[in-house]
Design brief:
Layout (H helix, E strand, L loop, with lengths): L8 H4 L12 E3 L2 E2 L18 E6 L8 E2 L2 E2 H5 L1 H9 L6 E2 L4 E2 L6 E6 L12 H20 L3 E6 L7 H9 L5 E6 L23 H8 L3 E9 L8 H9 L3 E3 L1 H16 L9 E7 L25 H14 L3 E5 L6 H22 L8
Length: about 350
């Protein structure tokens, strides 16, 4: 097997870490995340703290996204769950903490995204796909659980979650966003439709459409280099956003300073939406950046930095969380996503135990 020849489920299930164990399945070849109970409907969310939701959607043109075949991207929700099966429980030795003794996590399956949207990405089908993710997130938030959406593209892995967070919060909602790109163009490049919060426009649409979200409560982390329009970046800075480029993080601020700066998203808000666009990891994580195709840029964040930030978000508490652009094809990268989710949940557990972080 080559470095990025991902194994099928039958092969994976017989590896030394997974062999001999039974796994609850949400679909053929798809175990539940970390072998957590499967929530078949809203009633099964009662008492849950975290609900895992898949959003297998790719905004592909001619079968490619960022020059990488759509099929390599869209498997992320399934493959992350498969990699989670290697871990027998929620004991995190870093904290001497069994997360699942304090956090009830369930797997709420995948959103009912219409399969035809992968062949015909019309605005109407994209909006239907977005609504399917919103519905799952609404169920989770109304049950008192934090939805954690494993997606791949916008709007299904970003704006849909932000919208559910905003519409279920009585007051301002902050945002922590990790990304290589600002995704703040005024119009979706794929459809040209002003209703679509697409790959290059979802953040702009978040602030255009959601009245209780404002850039003054945004902490934006990881962008760097020469890709962005200066007018776009300066507008967000003028509106009060806290921008931490990966250059600033490395040239003096450090991860501790970055963690302290997260408080901006909680200051004066009633909820927080956290979003990790995993192209932010570039080639600094456990796999070469080339697997991201056109999305890779130098000076990326490391796997430790993003896992640490997720943990600190959990310690502060949050309304919803999402992933997009999970680098395709690498088992080690999918394991990184598992770590992010579990260390986020560890932060929530510490919060329950009175060891969280409440911004002053």
């Amino acid at each position: 097997m080559g470095a990025f020849d991902y194994p099928d489920w039958d092969t994976f299930a017989t590896t030394s870490f997974a062999a001999g164990r039974e796994f609850p399945l949400i679909a053929p070849e798809t175990p539940s995340f970390m072998s957590r109970p499967v929530a078949a409907g809203p009633a099964d969310l009662e008492g849950a703290d975290v609900a895992i939701i898949g959003a297998p959607y790719v905004a592909a043109r001619d079968g490619l996204y960022a020059g990488v075949p759509m099929e390599d991207w869209i498997e992320a929700p399934k493959r992350v769950r498969q990699q989670s099966a290697r871990y027998p429980g929620g004991y995190v030795q870093d904290f001497d903490l069994d997360v699942f003794e304090h956090i009830r996590m369930v797997d709420y399956g995948d959103a009912d995204i219409p399969p035809e949207v992968m062949e015909s990405q019309t605005p109407e089908l994209i909006l239907e796909a977005q609504a399917a993710v919103e519905a799952k997130c609404n169920d989770a938030i109304r049950a008192g659980a934090t939805p954690v959406v494993i997606g791949q593209n916008s709007p299904c892995g970003s704006f849909a979650i932000a919208k559910a967070c905003a519409e279920n919060t009585d007051g301002p909602v902050g945002c922590v966003s990790l990304d290589t790109h600002w995704d703040a163009q005024p119009l979706d490049a794929l459809t040209g439709d002003p209703r679509i919060a697409g790959a290059s426009s979802w953040k702009h649409k978040m602030y255009e459409f959601l009245d209780n979200m404002h850039p003054r409560h945004l902490v934006e982390i990881g962008e760097r280099g020469m890709l962005e329009d200066k007018a776009v970046v300066r507008r967000y800075l003028d509106e009060g956003a806290r921008f931490i480029s990966s250059w600033e993080l490395r040239s003096g601020l450090g991860v501790e300073g970055c963690v302290e700066a997260l408080d901006r998203a909680w200051d004066g808000t009633k909820g927080v939406y956290a979003h990790f666009d995993m192209d932010v990891i570039g080639g600094a994580g456990p796999a070469p950046g080339d697997i991201l195709g056109e999305l890779v840029e130098p000076v990326a964040l490391t796997d430790y930095e993003i896992i640490r930030i997720a943990h600190e978000i959990g310690r502060r508490g949050l309304t919803g969380f999402s992933f997009i652009c999970i680098p395709p094809g690498s088992a080690a990268v999918y394991r990184t996503i598992v770590y992010i989710v579990v260390y986020l949940a560890a932060g929530l557990a510490l919060r329950k135990l009175g060891r969280g972080h409440d911004p002053a």
